[in-house]
Amino acid sequence: MNAIVLCSGGLDSTVLLHEVSRSHSVLAGLSFDYGSKHNARELPFAAAHCRALGIRHETVELGFMDRLFSSTLLRSGGAVPDGYYTEETMKATVVPFRNGILLSVAAGFAESVGAEAVMIGAHAGDHVIYPDCREPFMEAMAGALKLGTDAGVDLLRPFIAVDKSGIVQRGAEMGVDFSQTWSCYKGGERHCGACGTCVERREAFFLSGVDDPTEYESTGPLPGRPGA
Amino acid sequence: MNAIVLCSGGLDSTVLLHEVSRSHSVLAGLSFDYGSKHNARELPFAAAHCRALGIRHETVELGFMDRLFSSTLLRSGGAVPDGYYTEETMKATVVPFRNGILLSVAAGFAESVGAEAVMIGAHAGDHVIYPDCREPFMEAMAGALKLGTDAGVDLLRPFIAVDKSGIVQRGAEMGVDFSQTWSCYKGGERHCGACGTCVERREAFFLSGVDDPTEYESTGPLPGRPGA
Fold this sequence. Notes:
The structure is a homodimer. In chain A, 41% of the residues lie in helices and 11% in strands. The model of chain A has no long low-confidence stretch (mean pLDDT 92). Chain A has a five-stranded parallel β-sheet, with helices on both faces. Chain A has a single domain (2-208), classed as 3-Layer(aba) Sandwich (Rossmann fold). In chain A, α1 runs parallel beside α2 (39-53). Chain A is built from eight helices and five strands; from the N terminus they run βαβαβαααβαβαα. By secondary structure, chain A is an alpha/beta fold. Chain A binds chain B through residues 58, 60-61, 63-65, 68-70, 91, 94-101, 103-105, 107-112, 131-132, 134, 136-137, 140-141, 143-150, 153, and chain B through 58, 60-61, 63-65, 68-70, 91, 94-101, 103-105, 107-112, 131-132, 134, 136-137, 140-141, 143-150, 153.
């Protein structure tokens, strides 16, 4: 199958890129610069993995999101909160309809280059509080891609039944260099180790039993999950 | 209702902007510069109508479409064909999944500024050969917007049962200055009068009985419709 893989340079999509490239023809890895605080940290990793795999890499500029949208994830937004995600802190990091925008752009690009599918590293641990990560949204969006393209582009989510620690395990089995991936939303020199996405990254390595090569600013004990 | 109106500076969306602004609160008119040959001609009209109505106007830059997508509508594409749309000539002007991309961006912007609905000037004459103009796509996309936003943004198409000559009539009743709208895909100094969208514009004025103030390069007889 000819596919476009959305790759941010994060952990999930990097493992996806490696896995899909083994069994399918990846016509391109597609990244997005939408003005997040961590785009500058993660995108070079996306480019490097594509280069190493001999895959075309394209970065799409979506600078209008930083200018017009509201989110602490964006450079124009306030500080990214620390600790496990809670309803309140997560809402602050939502970039409205981001997945809808990224998948739409990917669908148009897929149709332009003759790809039959768009693949995204959505997984079982994705947060139901983000409306554009929920199953009903993904199903509606898959229908829109299929019906709105001449070729009937498919939206595929190979990791939808895998949690983040399972993704780490699969990556380790393929020899993915996790030090060449980026998660931290703060986008500093090193991973902060304390924001919601750093906490999940650290936990995924801990649960998978795979050595975590990441250099964190803070390696304090993982906080208890809310409500656990 | 608080709404975002997609306005290109074309005939349909300009009439929509005027009509919606009479009965709803239009938080912004949203235009897109995606590298089409006629963006430079139409977008100043979109801005001018918003300004005249006291409505915020934003132009979203989507330059990647011209760089990565294939279409004769784009500056990077070949010549725009003349005459009534046929299956073959229309396919050449398709910008893959364009409506999906524009509606997704509008949904994220609507959520960011507290708008409850995105309105688009889709109408009864829209071409079923464009996959992203067909009813099943629009319904799936409406579901994606509703489900993928926290506020449940609605996709509304007030002109979906109105044809283009009906839109001209409604605009004339509101006193819309049609000389301040742009249709021609070729994007020259004046409307060419011969490309598919010029032919439809001329026909809409003819059928509606409204004077056409447009200056065309060519005002030859309207060609017969294919199959008519």
